[in-house]
Amino acid sequence: MSTVNNDLKTMNKLMKPYSVACQLISAGIISVCCQSAHAQLLFSESFNYTQGSQLGAAGNINPSSGNKWSGGNADLAIGSANLPYAGLQEAAGNDLIDVGTTGSANSTYNNFSGAAVSTGSIFYSFVIDCTQAPTGNSYISALNPAAGTPNGSSDQLSTYVGPSGSGWQLGIRTTGGGTGAVYDTGLSVGTTYFVVEELTFGASPVGNLYVDPVPGGSQPGTPTETQIGGSASTSVDDVGFKGNSSAPKAGYEDIGDLLVAQDWADVTPSAVPEPGTLALLGSGLVLLQVGWRRLQKRA
User: Fold this and answer.
1) In the chain, how long is the greatest CA-to-CA distance?
2) Which label site among 147, 171, 173, 221 has the fewest CB atoms less than 10 Å from its CB?
3) Cβ contact 147:154 at 8 Å
4) Are 242 and 140 in contact, with CB atoms under 8 Å apart?
5) Strands (E), 95-156
């Protein structure tokens, strides 16, 4: 009996690194899963629809809301680009090509599945690549209440594009935002940018624009641009796009990976596990190696 007990004690000692290693690796895997499932999104869109179809085509139903995109025409069509951005967690899909070639302006929108947001802040992120520079300032997307389509100055928060030297500029405009949008200038044609917009509700709503923030990082203390609106922002529960009638006034934009939430972290997901997660996984692997060496010596 004494020999058996001694063997069991020896075996437990040899296997202890494996037990601890498995716990660490399990914790790391759970952490990765939690990071992936962390997002409390109001809306997401990867445009995983048939290439060449109009965004508002029958069957183009947003997976996060369960709602079909409204209206639209060939100026808002599904492309084939994935628009990768370094460090950003991306969903498989295509992109939206926003142009103005039909001679008829058009809009499309999709409502969130949950209740409208009317307090605090709301964040809207996407990636964008301008493939042909605009010749004039124009709005291409907006956040609005109910079934509101993009409508420029009356939008709760609208996204603008315009010319800037040999390149282009990107801007935002809040409700009653003075004489127009505020812009980040000097952007390059053919370059993918990561954009986050923030709207804080109130009698004088605040719109913040962030261009190329670090995915997975903290919200920067200073936005790229800020505008304070002159009219109250009431609520938001839809996102929309505008196709313009006078190409190439608004240029040609490829847009992808839309996220809408009430928290910065939820719209800026990192594709790389956090350092703590990597440490857990690394420690587990080291202990597995220690356990293996002990078993080898025992053999």
Assistant:
1) 92
2) 221
3) no
4) yes
5) 95-98, 106-111, 121-132, 138-144
Q: What's 40-267's CATH class? A: mainly beta
Q: CA–CA separation, 280 vs 291, rounded Å?
A: 17
pLDDT of residue 22: 46
Are 196 and 268 a contacting pair, CB within 8 Å?
yes
**By the 8 A CB rule, do 165 and 183 touch?**
no
Any idea which of 34-38, 83-87, 230-234 has the lowest mean pLDDT? 34-38
**Nearest by Cα to 160 from 174, 145, 176, 178:** 174
Helix or strand holding residue 24 (H, E): helix 2-37
157/266 Cα distance (integer angstroms): 19
Q: How many CB atoms lie within 10 A of CB 241?
A: 27
pLDDT of residue 283: 55
- What is d(CA 33, CA 281) in angstroms, rounded to the nearest whole number? 13
46 pLDDT tier (thresholds 50, 70, 90):
very high
Whether this model's pTM surpasses 0.90? no
Question: Would you give the DSSP letter of residue 125?
Answer: E
* Contact indicator for 38, 266 with CB cutoff of 8 Å: yes
3-state DSSP assignment of residue 227: strand
* Structure tokens, 68: 């079909």
* pLDDT the model gives residue 243: 84
Phi, psi of 45 (to 5 degrees): -155, 120
Cβ atoms within 10 Å of 31's Cβ, excluding its own:
18
